[in-house]
Amino acid sequence: MDPKEPFECTLESVTKKFTMFLKNGIPVRAVLSVKFKEYKQELNVREKTVQSPDKTKVHITQRGDSLWLIASRAYGNAKLWRPIADLNEIKNPRFLEPGIKLIIPPLE
Fold first, then answer.
1. How far apart are CA 71 and CA 69, in angstroms?
2. Which superfamily, per CATH, for 9-42+52-104?
3. Which pLDDT does position 75 carry in this prediction?
4. Among 13, 43, 78, 93, which has the highest number of CB atoms less than 10 A from its own CB?
């Protein structure tokens, strides 16, 4: 992959560590660590799976999962997380408990 070529990804995690403070305690410098996950727009032949006619999928959440990451994997676009949240009545999309069975609806 060309390092100058952009790629589409989802943000998996961000951590911050303040490294410099003013005398009054206000932070003025921080180091951020970020973790991205690249996703593909199309699957190759070996990655494609047989699906039911309505294309509804089920996903069991795991530690570290987010609706954005699940939508990225299911639809190829992390911005399409809302249909998953709505169908599964998820009130707080920022927190997914591991082991929950989510229905991934087909997009029309």
1. 5
2. LysM domain (3.10.350.10)
3. 87
4. 78
